[in-house]
Amino acid sequence: MKILVLNAGSSSQKSCLYDITGDQLPAYPPHPLWEATIDWTVATDYGVMKVKANGIKQETNLSSDAKEEAISKLLQTLVSGDTQVLESLSEINAVGHRVVHGGTEYSEATRITPEVQATITQLIPLAPSHNPANLQGIEAVERVLPDVPQVAVFDTAFHSQMPPEAAVYPIPYEWFEQGVRRYGFHGTSHRYCALRTAELMEKPLESLKMITCHLGNGCSLAAVKDGISVNTTMGFTPLEGLMMGTRSGSIDPAIIFYLMRDRGFDVNSIDRMLNKESGFKGVSGLSADLRTILHAMNEKNERATLAFDLYIHRLRSAIGQMLASLGGLDVLVFTAGVGENSVDVRHRACEGFEFLGLTLDVEKNMNSPMDTDITTPDSAVRVYVIHTEEDWAIARQTWQCLR
């Protein structure tokens, strides 16, 4: 079964094509036949599409004015040029999509129908940076491959067993009954990284108290106990929790009242500011990209330094919050673009927890670790860097759903 995966984030598009043969899933993630990414954070007026297949890597700039056409251009690289791996797009047997918000309706991978699409659309106000991008991918595939089954893998699913004290907001209870609750996101990544870490430690996941840190342009933590997510930092929407690339994370809600009452903001301008103009971008005034922030820090840019220090302060505080939900900690996991690649973020975050007996091995941390423990042998808490295989997790759940 050839399964195409479309994994749309708030500022990126990751895609893979897997070929799963036989009646059993492979024990380890297979190498995809084709991989592609689109990154819209590198510049204000264009994005960069990178495609890898047949041992060849290609890079193309895409105009920011033509984002809706980007997925179609991406799919064409499957059947043309040096990256061609299919004679026709009709060879694709199924398409799996990461969908950020599934509300209370969906807690597992689900075949996409008009009703499912309608629900994803209705939930756009709860995930304004993501669900529209997820829908664009679904609609793009419908136009090109109208008869191919598509499956939605929901980011909210892994957190669906959070206990009430973690899921309910302290507002009038009738709002919880109407769906205003904490959902959590990045669940596909958190679930994969938790399982992979337990595998590497050669211990049952159910025996571990674990905090998984998904740190990319969007960021969230999950407290995993008894094999399930018992708490997480994102909530009703992906805006809650940590400071992110362009998102503020949690703030005093009265700031919104002040800006609307005294500063002339309306709902749309507040939404845009908190989701698109805050976080690293808002504090530094430079960029949502941590690489740009670190470069500016080296040039003694004070606002870049403030942005990084604020990010670390909030990350440590949130790790402490997850720690309290677990009542102890066996392993801390870093994943996603920042978590996997930033030596500085891992080092600074772990410094705050040396009182737990956590001792980072500086050399291991520096040496581009992947699926590796980066602590010293005597560390009381293990720290793993895990390469998140969200795409393979989506393909696997798509295969299972359709089987």
From TrEMBL:
Its EC number is 2.7.2.1. Substrate binds at R98. It is an enzyme of class 2 (transferase). GO terms for molecular function: acetate kinase activity; ATP binding; magnesium ion binding. Pathway: Metabolic intermediate biosynthesis; acetyl-CoA biosynthesis; acetyl-CoA from acetate: step 1/2. GO terms for biological process: acetate metabolic process; acetyl-CoA biosynthetic process. ATP binds at K14, H214, L215, G216, N217, G218, D289, L290, R291, G337, V338, G339, E340, N341. Gene3D superfamilies: 3.30.420.40. Transmembrane segments: none annotated. Mg(2+). Can also accept Mn(2+). It is found in: Cytoplasm. Its cofactor is Mg(2+); Mn(2+). The active site is at D155. Its main location: cytoplasm. Mg(2+) binds at N7, E390. One of its GO terms (cellular component) is cytoplasm. Keywords: ATP-binding, Cytoplasm, Kinase, Magnesium, Metal-binding, Nucleotide-binding, Transferase. Coiled coil: none annotated. PROSITE patterns: ACETATE_KINASE_1, ACETATE_KINASE_2. NCBIfam families: ackA. PANTHER family: ACETATE KINASE, ACETATE KINASE-RELATED. HAMAP family: Acetate_kinase. Homodimer. Belongs to the acetokinase family. This is Acetate kinase. It comes from Roseofilum reptotaenium AO1-A. The gene is ackA.
